[in-house]
Design brief:
single chain; about 100 residues; mainly beta; two-stranded antiparallel sheet; about 10% helix; extended
């Protein structure tokens, strides 16, 4: 969210369901300046946010406080998707696309 001084607040919404329809009653959202390492004691996680001049944001997640132990790139709290099967070898598919 853009603030009047042209800085941003990072707003994290918390939900109690996988479809993001029921906001958490205790902490429906958390706001903080989008710069630096922040600790969420409730989850024992810390996040390092960095705003870039091109108006993009990088968020790095860590276990525990202090942004010291990186979390995996893949989500650990979401079910994995099954890979979609494709038929035919990659060479055959490329040959079909070339023709």
């Amino acid at each position: 969210e853009l603030k009047p001084d042209d800085t941003y607040d990072w707003v994290v919404e918390h939900f109690d369901d996988t479809n993001c329809k029921r906001p958490n009653k205790h902490t429906p959202s958390v706001r903080h300046t989008a710069s630096g390492c922040f600790v969420f004691k409730m989850y024992n996680h810390s996040y390092n946010d960095k705003c870039h001049p091109n108006r993009t944001l990088t968020v790095s997640a860590f276990y525990g406080p202090g942004c010291l132990t990186p979390m995996p790139v893949t989500a650990v709290n979401l079910p994995a998707e099954r890979p979609k099967l494709t038929f035919g070898s990659p060479r055959r598919r490329l040959a079909r696309l070339a023709n």
